[in-house]
Structures are given as structure tokens and as C-alpha cells.
Amino acid sequence: MSLDPATVRRIARLARIGIDESDLPALQRELNGILGWIEQLNEVDIDGVEPMVGTGHAALRMREDVVTDGDARDAVLSNAPDAAGPYYTVPKVVE
Amino acid sequence: MTYLIEGRDGPWELVVGLEVHAQVISQSKLFSGASASYGGEPNTHVSLVDAGFPGMLPVINRECVAQAVRTGLGLKARVNLESRFDRKNYFYADLPTGYQISQFTHPIIGEGAVEIELADGSTRVIGITRLHLEQDAGKSMHDQDPARSFIDLNRAGVALMEIVSEPDIRSPEEAGAYLRKLRMILRYLGTCDGNMEEGSMRADVNVSVRKAGEPFRTRCEIKNVNSIRYVMQAIEVEAVRQVEIWENGGSVDQETRLFDPARSETRSLRSKEDAHDYRYFPDPDLLPLVIEEAWVQGLAAHLPELPDAKRQRFQDEYGIPRYDAGVLVAEQATADFYETVARGRDPRLAANWVIGDFFAALNRTGRTIQDSPISADALGGMLDLITDGTINGKIAKDVFEEMLETGESAADIVERKGLRQVTDTGAIDAAVQAVLDKNPDKLAEYRGGKDKLFGFFVGQVMKAMAGKGNPALVNEALKKVL
Asked: Which of A67, A76, A80 is nearest to B158 (CA)?
């Protein structure tokens, strides 16, 4: 599998990363290098092996349905660059 | 009855599937301990997990899982003892983490079925493809400021069930019936309040059209429709739009559209071609969700009686018609009310009164069954007076109105106003005689063969007795002298 420049551009856009046209060839080379490295895994025969999703046979731990958190607006908004009263704000996003 | 869209060159068939997002009833959120309740001051029902702070880890809420399983059982669906969570990636200001935790490849609930009933009495089964758990997003407000959108994350992370139907729906009516039935089941189960106005139940509508016998053609998805009526309208106008495109030699593009009720049209969401590229992958923060068969069976054992079963039982146990039983089970509170009235009484008389005068009174006064001015026991007490002959059916209507106004018991009203039905045959005979004396001409006509006048005499006697005569005895007395 190898990525063409259009795909690299698209991946960047999906991740909201702005890139210069001039950076494309280098990025394409790097990404293809990573994919090539991962593709080596395909050489391993995994017929009949269940996908491993974690170590051991651990399953998700569940918590009880009680309110233990929240009511911490100041902390929640502490990193907001442009809070307005009780709200976060962002540049207007209306379609 | 087949719903067809008449095109220029013949009829088209409609194909619809629905994705319903139902907000789970729980105290706290799916993956955090913040409150899941509606309202609240902006950004106060938010934990650092919901706000997407670095390093915060999600921990699943057992009750949300239980609610999904209950819903699955109520939809007669397969419960998957092992399911998984995936990240659905997209950027939007009210999604702090940049991904929604959802279940893509391994949902907790598999195939099920919902039986719907149409206006003509026919029934159809609509298949359920799956149900999965996922997080809701926050809320954006665009009208507070000229240049900025305001974000409230109170809803972010609240548990949703996405319930996906098979493309089995063939008319707007079926779509409406499906949504109503689904909402009824969710409310009975207590897993979602089904309130579409507050947004706790929303529908995405997949619509396509085809000629009879064809495979499916390209579909469009109409996002976030928030009332049953709008779903039905959206389907109707979208189908007509697609037929026009096909008939003019064009082809329908698979895309996301919005329904605009004011103009009764659907519009393309000016979306980027990447709108559907969510790059799902397994959430590395969450191990597989594994539940025990015994736990599922414990939940199944405590499910309430569901609408279909209750309706059948009402028919069997109370001997009331299928239609009446359907009306009574539409809401659990109504069904409970009816059962209280009917217990130990004539169940058909009870059904007639509940569906007839009682429902009419609620409508008229703008009350609901929860704040009804007449309790089930009070209505039952009035039926007892009818059954034991204390009052007749006509007086009962007056007593009922009085109960509605004053909240008094039927027995007190009858006593206070002296409405006891007259069963004294002496008094009835006297009234009959007085009426005959007053109407010698009518009497002559009757004797001359005009049988229909019998009703006139009954009416006059009842009037003379202020409606309190026992109708059977009045009839009998009249027949004797006439």
C-alpha cells in the first residue's frame, strides 16, 4: 500500500493540519515509510487467532450510576481561551 | 395498502429506514460521574472527562448498559454478551475530544423486531438491525453573539441508544406508526422518556425510491428530525424530489440533507465530501464490554409487561374489543387507571367510561391522567352506583360532570342533589298517567297504529321525573297502559 499526494492532503485536512504543497513529498515519503513498516505484520500467519484487544482476559470495569462529578464550571472553563460567562465560545460555526 | 408515488412514467415505491437516537434515562453520564439530568446551569453537569481534558479516562456506567439490554429485550432482539467501543472521529466545537465514543463493529444489541399497526387495522413487522450505546454531544448556540458560537457541554457524554431499523418501511404512515410504537416501548421500559420536543428522541431518516421489483437505489439521509409529523412530511417531500430527479434522467447523490418544515422541503447540507469519513477505530481506553447471561436474565425477569402483551391480556381478561384495548394501553398510566376502575366491576362499562366521558373530560380541561380531577377509585365508585341501580346512565353523566367540577364523590353528589333513581312503581305509574292525560291526541295517534310514538312517551315520562326514573321500569309501565 502506498499513498499518493492527494490522499496525504486529504488525511491532513481530516486532521485539520495545514500543510504547504512543498511539504507534501516529504510527508508522503514518511507516511509510506510507516505504512511499509506496519505492513510487515501481514507476513505473520494469524489464521484462527482471535484478535487480541488487551492483555489477559480483562473486561471493562463498570461503575454504579451515581452522580459523583460535575459542578466544577471554573475548572472546566479554566483553559478556555475565550469564555463568555458560563460558556465556552468559538468562532461562529453556522452552516 | 400500498403507498406509491405517481411519477410521469408510472408508480414508484418508497423505501425508508430510520435511525433513532434515544437518550438513556440514568442519573449520571455514560462514561463520567457528572449528572445526566436535563437543564442545569450551563457547563455545571460537566466533568473533566466530558470536557476532554488530557489524561482523563472513561469508566462505563452499569445502569446505562442495563438500560440498553432492557431495550434490546423489549425489541425482542439478540443481546451480545461481548461488545466493543470505537471512536468516531470528527471535528465540531461541541465535541471536545474530537471523537464520539460509539459502537461500530460490535454493538451490544443485534437483530430484533417491532410490530406496527396501521389505520386500516393491518399489522406489519419492521426489522431492527441493531442498537448501540454512544455519547451525546454538547449544545451550540449561534444566536448569542454576532461573531461567536456559545458552547454548553451539559449534554456532552450523556448516554444515547442508537436504534437502527431495517429498510422495511414503505410509507410515511408506517414511519409514524413505527416511531410511535418504538416510543411506547421505550416509555414502558423506562429506558427513554421519548420526549421529542426536548430532543431526548431524534430520528435520522434514510429515504430512497424504486420501481416495483427493483433492488434498492441510492438513498439520502435526512438528519435530526425532531417530531413524528416532520418525519412523515420529510419522507413525503424527499421521495417526490427523488422521483423527479430519476424521471428527468438524473441520478440521486448519496448525501446528508436537512428538512425545513417552514418550506416543506429538504436541503442538501453544504457538507464537505469528507462528511462521512469518520475513521472509526477501537477505543484504546476501553476494554471489551462483557456481560453475563445470568445478569441479562435477571434484567429480563424484571421487565414490565409490554404494550403488545398488555393489549392481548386486556382483550382476554376483560373481554373488551381490540381497538379499545389498544387505546387503553397507549400509555402505561392510562392502562393502570383503567385496571383500577375495572377491578371487581363490569370491565366493558369501565372501558366505555374511561375511553368516552373520562378522556373527553381530560381533553376539555387540558389535564393529563397524572393530574386528573377524578381518580380511578372515584370513577369506579360512580360505576358501582350505576351497577347497583342507584342511578341510571343518564343521571350518571350529570353526576360525572359534577364530580369533575367539585371533586366530590359520586355517592355524596347523589345524596346531596337527590338523584337516586326512582324505582317506586307507584310513582312511575303516576307519572305515566299524568303524561297520558296531558297528551290525549298523541295517545289517540299511538293507538291508531303510530308505534314510533312510544319513544315520545318514554321521553315525556323521564322529563316529568327529572330524569330519575328507572328506564326499564318506565318502559314496562308504559307498555302496560298503552
From this structure: A67
Domain covering B425-481 assigned CATH 1.10.10.410 in the classification = yes
Note whether A69 contacts B289, CB cutoff 8 Å.
Answer: no
Nearest chain B CA: its distance from A17 CA (Å): 12
Among B27, B269, B286, beta carbon nearest to A65: B27
In this prediction the ipTM stands at: 0.85
**Residue recorded with cell 448569542:** B144
Query: Quick one: average pLDDT of B308-316?
Result: 96
List all residues of chain B from 39 to 98 with a beta carbon under 8 Å from chain A.
41-49, 51, 53, 59-65, 84, 89, 91-93
Max Cα distance, chain A (Å)? 58
For A68, nearest residue in chain B (alpha carbons) = B33
Q: Is B290 in Cβ contact with A92 (below 8 Å)?
A: no
- The amino acid occupying position B352 is N
Sheet with strand A88-91: strands edge to edge? A88-91, B148-152, B139-141
Q: Where in chain B is the domain with CATH 1.10.10.410?
A: 425-481
B78's CB contacts (< 8 A; 6+ apart) are B72, B109, B110, B111, B112
For residue B115, give Cα distances in angstroms to A46, B309, B460. Answer: 43, 12, 52
Q: Is the pLDDT of residue B273 over 60?
A: no
The average confidence (pLDDT) of chain A is 89
Closest alpha carbon within chain A to B64: A65
CA B183 – CA B177 distance, rounded (Å): 10
Q: Which of B397, B399, B390, B393 is nearest to B423 (CA)?
A: B390
Lowest mean pLDDT among B227-236, B307-316, B436-445: B436-445
Q: Counting Cβ atoms within 10 Å, is residue B275 exposed (0-12), middle (13-18) or buried (19+)?
A: exposed
Provide the residue ranges of all domains of chain A, joining segments of one domain with +. Answer: 5-42
Give the residue from B30, B47, B290 with the most A CB atoms within 10 Å of its CB, the best one to mutate.
B47
Strand-pair partners of B123: B117
Q: Where are the beta strands (DSSP E) in B289-394?
A: 289-290
